[in-house]
Amino acid sequence: xxxxxxxxxxxxxxxxxxxxxxxxxxxxxxxxxxxxxxxxxxxxxxxxxxxxxxxxxxxxxxxxxxxxxxxxxxxxxxxxxxxxxxxxxxxxxxxxxxxxxxxxxxxxxxxxxxxxxxxxxxxxxxxxxxxxxxxxxxxxxxxxxxxxxxxxxxxxxxxxxxxxxxxxxxxxxxxxxxxxxxxxxxxxxxxxxxxxxxxxxxxxxxxxxxxxxxxxxxxxxxxxxxxxxxxxxxxxxxxxxxxxxxxxxxxxxxxxxxxxxxxxxxxxxxxxxxxxxxxxxxxxxxxxxxxxxxxxxxxxxxxxxxxxxxxxxxxxxxxxxxxxxxxxxxxxxxxxxxxxxxxxxxxxxxxxxxxxxxxxxxxxxxxxxxxxxxxxxxxxxxxxxxxxxxxxxxxxxxxxxxxxxxxxxxxxxxxxxxxxxxxxxxxxxxxxxxxxxxxxxxxxxxxxxxxxxxxxxxxxxxxxxxxxxxxxxxxxxxxxxxxx
Length: 484
Ligand code: ATP
Ligand code: MG
Known about the structure:
- The chain has 484 residues and is an alpha+beta fold.
- The protein is built from 20 helices and 12 strands.
- The strands form 3 sheets. An 8-stranded mixed β-sheet has the order 1-10-9-2-3-6-5-4. It has a two-stranded antiparallel sheet with strand order 7-8.
- Magnesium ion is lined by residues 40-41, 53-54, 56.
């Protein structure tokens, strides 16, 4: 496909909409003699008039060269080496042009497991990107746009199309299948026929992806404001059950479906209100029906035994089984696993008729109480028997919410004070440096002159003082008729 170039006057991307950190990184690379482009989601989203999630840069500088240019950077990644340039909480991802090479290590299924062969040509780099709409480059040298694969056309027509042969590209990296559906959900685009066709057929290749990478992908699918649409797309292409193993009995049932649709709608709503969605809540929602069934089955199994275990023990056992199965697909970090378990225990506690009155306050004081309440509120939509519990805990929830708002305001205030102090320290030290720089440097001869003058003054001061002391002593002796 022929290269399409749009000069600055022919497109809508303005530097005003590019983060200061990204611009600084681009300029420093350019000033060091390298080529530097914005590419990927940021260009795509800016052209669509959306705020980019992050800014990615592509360059002909190798990772070590980038790292040397930025003291605030680190090299990450094994499969692909990338440089993260860190500005406070903002991270700019800088990748080196890649090229097709025989050095790429492939698995038996054609999956690229390691590839750090760097290129010098932007055309090769564009060829290696996933979709046409993700391969538009913004050149910091002259602010033009470079489109190698018809991405601008697809962007205006709302189409997601993979670059190159679809089967081969999905085999190289099956995550591209999930990415296709994520962009479809996020942007409300259509998939090109050839991009869509292999999805259900090649979906099982996703099982070859490392569980750490899958954990990140699942978060991107469900936590960033288009969870409901992602869920519908994944279901439609039979990918959902691959992400949540052992859920086959529930996926597709009206109850599970309504529950998830409702839960994901409310988490998308949170994103609109600029509230964060947390993975522990997401997994609790997805795993809930399975854990509930496991707890029920375990209860039945132990029913006739003389020493029936406590509900808490059964919940722990059910969580362990469900989370172990889930871990084979998505590597949920231990802190999040602990939160999921605590949350599920709390959900059982606040729907337990045998909860002691003395325990109520301490339950309501727990860190995850508000999340547990949200969970039963969701369930109450489909399980009328849960409604009385929602009514009972509502008052405690309101109080917990008030405490949370107050604590957050206090935290924000402290943070602001710390930032102000840091700012004032910085401006003081800047002022001191400027004052120092303003003072004229003295030559060696001038320094020597000043020293002598000071010594003479010091010496003469001492002599004067000595003489005055002597005169006073003489006068006193004379007054006392003492020997001179
Ligand atoms: P967003 O950041 O909004 O989720 P994005 O397109 O920027 O979307 P990133 O994961 O940040 O997604 O990737 C940046 C760019 O890197 C992509 O736009 C694409 O050009 C390229 N890319 C990312 N993952 C792949 C992949 N698996 N295969 C090929 N190219 C990829
Ligand atoms: Mg991005």
